[in-house]
Amino acid sequence: MILSLALGVAGGYGAFRFTQADISVDASGAAQTDELEAKIARQAAELDAMAQNLAAVSDKAEMTATTISTAENLTRERDALVAENETLKQNVAALKAGIDAITQDANVAEARVADELARLQNEVVPDLTTERDQLKRKTLMMLADQENLKARAKAAADSQAADAKRIAELESRVANTEGELAASQEVLNRLSLERRSSEAPQIVAEDVEVDAAKLQDPLENSALDARDPDAVAAALRTAPGLETLSDTDRQKLTDTLVAGECVTTALKSVFDRVPILTLRNLIRDLNSDC
Length: 290
Prior knowledge:
The chain is an all-alpha fold. It has helices at residues 2-25, 30-199, 212-216, 229-238, 247-258, 263-268, 276-286.
């Protein structure tokens, strides 16, 4: 458009010059001259106006070119923004999809946690409460049993102490009795020897047959008071400390007691050390003095 305008201005100026040459050559009359001058002035004014318009159009063209360049830049920026906006939209869509997936997973996890919590409240907690109550009751019972055991242990200790004291007393009595028995036997032996010596006839030593065993233990041939076999059997059944005896020793003890032997002597025949409780029970049950 600007190029066409410039060509038009150039053509008008050339026509003006050509017309001015023709006018200067052909000066036939003054009127035509004035008219031509006026026309020239008008055309000059039009040319000036056209020149001004051309300058204005040129400025506007430059402004338009600048505007077009700016518009192109803006268009490129717009396209870049549009592309970035599309990218952002895609990112937002991806983020939304991720948020939806996370929300769905969270809902599933929440439902699972709610189910587990319900199971714990409905099943595990009641079971644990029941087990706790059972353990409490068991603990209380064990504490009560412990107190009972303590009481029984104390009673057993007291009873053991009493039994030990009684046993010590019985052992002391048995020792005293054995000592008295030994002393009595010595006295009896001496008296028996003295009695036999005083009653025996004076004979020659080689004509007398002496029984050495009778002289050593004169009580062995003295008369004994026999006991009831049933009473002896009953006493032996209830007497403690006879579980370790063999059948032979038990029969020997039975026979000795039935024959009327002293309980202490009978027990010494089958025991290395006479059991105190056995001695006590047999003396009591058989009404024995020794």
